[in-house]
Design brief:
Helix content: 40-55%
Radius of gyration: 20 Å
CATH architecture of the largest domain: Alpha-Beta Complex
InterPro entries: Aminoglycoside_PTrfase (IPR002575), Kinase-like_dom_sf (IPR011009)
Shape: globular
Number of strands: 9
Number of helices: 10
Pfam family, one: APH
CATH topology of the largest domain: Aminoglycoside 3'-phosphotransferase, Chain: A, domain 2
Keywords: Transferase
Organism: Kitasatospora aureofaciens (Streptomyces aureofaciens)
Strand order of the largest sheet: 1-2-3-5-4
Protein name: Phosphotransferase
Order of helices and strands: HHEEEHEEHHHEEEEHHHH
Largest sheet: 5 strands, antiparallel
Strand content: 15-25%
CATH class of the largest domain: Alpha Beta
Length: 290
C-alpha cells in the first residue's frame, strides 16, 4: 500500500514536494482523493483521472470556486486552498476535521438529521446566496428554459406542466445568485465546534434563488422539521423568490424521476420512487396553481 499510495500521489508531490500522503480517502474510475500532511497542515489532494469533457468541466469549476474563495472569502466556512495544478488536474485543499451530518453516504438519508445540523446547513446555503463572488468566478449557469424544453421533449412533462413551469420561470425574474449546486448532506462536514464546512464545489455556479434550498428540501424528506424550516425561509422573500423556489423544486424532482426510472427495480429504488412521485404530484399542483 505505501508504494501504491506514493505512486498515486506523485502528481501531488511534484506540485507540493512537502506533501506526505497518508491514506486513500476514495478511489473511483474518475478521481482519487488522498489524505496527507504538508507544511500548511493536514491536507486533502484531489486528482482527476479521466479526461472525459464533462468531468474535466466539473473539476475546473471546483478549482475556480476555491480560487474565488481565496480571493474573496465567502460567508460560509470552506476548506482553504493550498495548491492547484490546472494542467495535470490536481487540487490540494485543507483537510477539515469533523464528521458528516448523517451516517453513511446516502444521497437522501433515510433517518432524521440533527436539527442543529439542518439549521447550520440551511444557514450556510442562505448566506452563500447573498455573497458577491469576484468577477469572472462562478461562471457556470443553468439554462432553465433549455432544460424545461428538453424534459418536455423526453416526455417527462405534459404540455400543461411544461407551460406552467415556463410561466413560473418568467415570474421568477432574471436575478441569479451564487449557489453550491449540489448541497447533499455528504457535502457538509460538521466541525467539532458544531459549525459546518461546505465541500465538493464541482457544481458551483449561478442559479435562480432557492436552488440549493430546493435540493435540501428534496433530500431531507426523512427529516420532519426540515421542510417547514426551508419553506419559512422562502416565504420571507418576495414573490419572485417563491416562484423560483417552486420552479427549482419541480425541475429537480423531474431530474430525480428520470434518474430513478433508469435504475433497475429494487426495494430501495421503489421506496425512493414513491417519495419522489408524491413530491412531484404536490409540487406540480402548486406550480400549476400559481
Amino acid at each position: 500500500m505505501p508504494d501504491e499510495l506514493t505512486g498515486a500521489a506523485a502528481p501531488v508531490i511534484r506540485l507540493r514536494p512537502d506533501f506526505r500522503p497518508t491514506a486513500f480517502l476514495s478511489r473511483t474510475d474518475k478521481s482519487l482523493l488522498i489524505a496527507g500532511d504538508c507544511e500548511d497542515g493536514p491536507a486533502v489532494a484531489k486528482l482527476l483521472t479521466t479526461r472525459e469533457p464533462l468531468w474535466v468541466e466539473k473539476f475546473s469549476a471546483e478549482i475556480e470556486a476555491y480560487r474565488a474563495f481565496a480571493e474573496t472569502p465567502p460567508p460560509v466556512p470552506v476548506p482553504g486552498l493550498i495548491a492547484v495544478d490546472d494542467r495535470h488536474h490536481v487540487l490540494v485543499i485543507e483537510h477539515v476535521p469533523g464528521h458528516l451530518p448523517a451516517p453513511g453516504r446516502d444521497r437522501c438519508p433515510p433517518q432524521a438529521l440533527d436539527p442543529a445540523h439542518v439549521t447550520a446547513m440551511l444557514t450556510a446555503m442562505s448566506d452563500l446566496s447573498r455573497w458577491s463572488p469576484p468577477t469572472g468566478a462562478f461562471t457556470r449557469t443553468l439554462d432553465y428554459l433549455a432544460r424545461l424544453d428538453r424534459d418536455h421533449r423526453q416526455g417527462l412533462t405534459t404540455p400543461q406542466e411544461h407551460q406552467a413551469l415556463t410561466d413560473l420561470f418568467h415570474r421568477a425574474g432574471t436575478d441569479l445568485v451564487p449557489g453550491h449546486g449540489d448541497p447533499l448532506p455528504t457535502n457538509f462536514v460538521v466541525r467539532p465546534d458544531g459549525r459546518v464546512t461546505v465541500i465538493d464545489w464541482e457544481h458551483a455556479g449561478h442559479y435562480l434563488p432557492g436552488h440549493d434550498l430546493a435540493v435540501l428540501w428534496i433530500v431531507l424528506a426523512a427529516t420532519p422539521k426540515a421542510r417547514p424550516q426551508i419553506e419559512e425561509l422562502v416565504a420571507a422573500g418576495p414573490q419572485s423568490v417563491r416562484a423560483a423556489f417552486t420552479l427549482n423544486r419541480a425541475m429537480l424532482l423531474v431530474r430525480e424521476l428520470r434518474n430513478h426510472r433508469a435504475v433497475p427495480p429494487s426495494t430501495w429504488r421503489d421506496q425512493r420512487m414513491a417519495v419522489i412521485e408524491r413530491d412531484w404530484h404536490d409540487v406540480r399542483a402548486l406550480a400549476q396553481a400559481e
